[in-house]
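#struct-help
A.M.: can someone run this one for me? Single chain, 206 residues.
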Amino acid sequence: MSELYMRYPLLEVCRCDIEAAVDIIKKAYRKGGKLLVCGNGGSCADSDHIVGELMKGFMLKRKLGGPFREKLKNLGFEDAEYIANNLQGALPAISLPSQSAVISAYANDVKADMVYAQLVFGYGGENDVFIGISTSGNSENVVLAAKVAKAKGLKTIALTGKSQSRLSAICDVTVKAPETETFKVQEMHLPVYHYICEELEKEFFK
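D.P.: on it. Structure tokens below:
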């Protein structure tokens, strides 16, 4: 039994959806895709957190492999070894809330509830995965972004609370944390996405 479900037995009811989310993201990365993640408030912070675990070493050091190390060396850079020794393997991911300039410009010039949708429209490709985080599952800007993601051919994953929601009606997979109060849902989301990040890291770097 996975340590996740031993430490957080409440998440056992989510096991199939968590594993399905892992599988979707693995397939996307094998095809050269990336993750686009968004949420509001605490879920905005979770978006940044997820990207931070994917874009650098999480549980593993992810030392740089030979081909890119050789490219640096062949370019004759005097600090090639230093660069190679300090780079880590990365799984491409973008936290949409971190795009503050375009978010503020779009909210001011167009529509505030469409900012994530616009970013998905601009960044998203058919090999990518959209992750929308909303404790209620009904955050308007996240729902609109999920609709654009579906229209662009992205796979879609939602992290929500236990209730049926607008996101769960749209997304390919919804991990419904078995809580309803916002802070309790957020407490369940963290071990879920840590587990997802760990499984991805083991797949591509171990």
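A.M.: thanks! The chain has two domains: 3-55+90-205, 61-89.
D.P.: also worth noting: Residues 61-89 form one domain.
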